[in-house]
Amino acid sequence: MAFELLLGYAAAHEAGHCLLGPGHSNSGLMRATWNRKDAEAMTRMSLNLTKPEVRTALARLAAAQPAAAR
Ligand SMILES: [Zn+2]
Question: Where are the domains of the chain?
Answer without folding.
Answer: 3-69
